Amino acid sequence: MMASIQSSALIFCSSKRSVNAAIHVPKLPRIDFSSASKIPTATNLVTNTTRVLEKFDVLNTHSHDDAQHYSSKSKSIVELYAILEAVADRVETHNNICEQRNNWNTLLLNSINMITLTATTMTGVAATIDTDGAPLLALKLSSALLFSAATGMLLIMNKIQPSQLTEEQRNATRLFKQLQTQIQTTIALGNPTEEDVKGAMEKVLALDKAYPLPLLGAMLEKFPAKFEPAVWWPSTQFKKKSNYKENKAESKKKNEEKKKKNGWSEEVEKEMREVVEVVKRKDIEDYERLGNIALKMNKCMAIAGPLMTGIAAAASTASLFVGSNNNINGSLVPLMAGSLAAAINTFEHGGQVGMVFEMYRNSAGFFNMLESSIESTLEEKDLERRENGELFEMKMALQLGRSVSQLRELASKSEACRMEGIDIHEFASKLF
Fold it and tell me: DSSP E strands: which ranges in 74-194?
């Protein structure tokens, strides 16, 4: 018994020693009281927290501004796409109307000429009949009715001028395609603004006003009292952009460095002013003169054609009461009037004099737009707000069908002619 107790005690003690040997108490760190000041206090924690919150507010403000800018930009893009859809629809519509009115011109011209020549032929055949009777009466009555129908149709045709209507729609299609390309370019650049949207809307409305689709109530006057160039751009497009005035010397000194940066110089401005003078004295005057000639010709033929068919109708009606003995004398007037009417109608509508008048009107309008564009650009005193001078010069040269070097040569020759007091029309070959 005693032996078992001792053995148990030995086992306990040995196990106890093994447990004590397994436990290791870590050494306490040595505290450096000199670094106690570096421990963050409550005040430092509040200061650091405030700085973090301020940085977060700044970032949040920038994020809000960026989101607002992105939202405005997205809205402008969506609006431009909506305008682009409307412009594409107008391009298709004006193109279809152009084809339709071109068909009007061809069909009406052929129909009226066939009616006129048929009536003239009937009158000539009636003149060869020596005996009175139903055949003679039928021929004279038919020719009188056909001449009357030709007169009415010719009055309508001369009123609406289908060839001029066709040219209007052709120009509208071209200008709407040009606007479509401009909007697509603005969207592709990726930075549209509300001004771009507003400008596109104004251009669409200006084109709608310049080239209306309906005939009744909105058709352009085909025989105006005075030749006036076409206007298809909004009135605010070339308005003066800045109204402030400053001393000339100060302005020159202030803009000296800007001119080098934005592509503008005294030579470029002088060149643009000379181009404006050439456009005023040569192109606009020429197109106005030619437009007035085309307008007068169109007016005369628009009156002469129906007048000739009307005279032929009246003479054919009067010949109904003339016996067969005077057939030749009674048929002379309708024969001559009918032939002249067919010739005048063919020259007016086959030659498309109305289209020529509209072409001159649009050409004069183009040079007016060019003049307004250059003048409004030069009136802008803040050179940074202008379009880049070199780019603007290149655009003007392309619109005038020249290279930049040729445009500069044109300006220099114009200045030389003006300084010598030489009429520009006498030296048109030198300038053009």
Answer: none
